[in-house]
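Box 4.2: Ligand-aware structure prediction
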Amino acid sequence: MSNVRRLYREPAIASHEGATTADSPKPKHVAIVMDGNGRWAAGRRLPRHVGHRAGYRVVRNLVRLAIERDIRHLTLFAFSSENWKRPEIEVSALMKLFLQALRREVNDLDDNGVKLDFLGARERLSAPLRKLMEETETRTAGNDRLRLHVAVSFGGRWDIVSAARRLSEAAAAGRMDPASVDEAALRRAMSLPDMPDPDLLIRTGGECRISNFLLWNLAYTELYFTDVLWPDFDAAQLDAALGIFSRRHRRFGTVTAGAEHA
Ligand code: IPE
Ligand code: IPE
Ligand code: MG
């Protein structure tokens, strides 16, 4: 990696510096772009789908870690609108993996108080996968220990366009006054209206971009990029990200208290 790219990364920190204390700010909502499965596999001369399977094992572990660390919302980017452009063999391997993983995990997720929901263009998914997603959502609807949002066939632009269309339809049908369209109305028309905005976005795999993830919701999210490939992401990596987050100053456009005359 070149020095130029390194400039955009967090500086290396000693492990004690990453530690959080009981009163350090903690993110309630963590969103993750789980990138690097393909490169992880390529580095081992394995096919890409093996990397995706390794990535799935990390998700299992991550859900447990999120519960332990009292993260209330976890949003995972599993498959983007643009990922449909990948070779058919990879897309079908991923779809098969989603189906198997959901079937296998639903009991454990439910037992652990996880409420699961999905965001994305479901009409592009197979009927069996859609059915399983709906069943899982219904079955886990009463849980509230951790809310796990999985973005499949999701794009931030798709979400905004879908919301705009819903509002236009309501206005055209006379159910809504166009003058009443504001941020709150648009948010209500989006995929998961009651999901708070992410406090922290983690992207693994070394790319420093959003790749059409939650464009609306990331407006004031703290961004954290790491070169670690998703299948290598573990508790220490999560804690490093949480440690960095705890030392960020979130101002939301205002000034830091005490800095008014600086
Ligand atoms: C992320 O890993 C998983 C999905 C996009 C489904 P990639 O498959 O993008 O892995 P790289 O970026 O090629 O290493
Ligand atoms: C983003 O990763 C999407 C997911 C992790 C699901 P990509 O690998 O698709 O992103 P780009 O193509 O490098 O921007
Ligand atoms: Mg990638």
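In the box above, the bound molecule is IPE. Strands lie at 29-33, 73-80, 114-119, 146-154, 200-203, 222-225.
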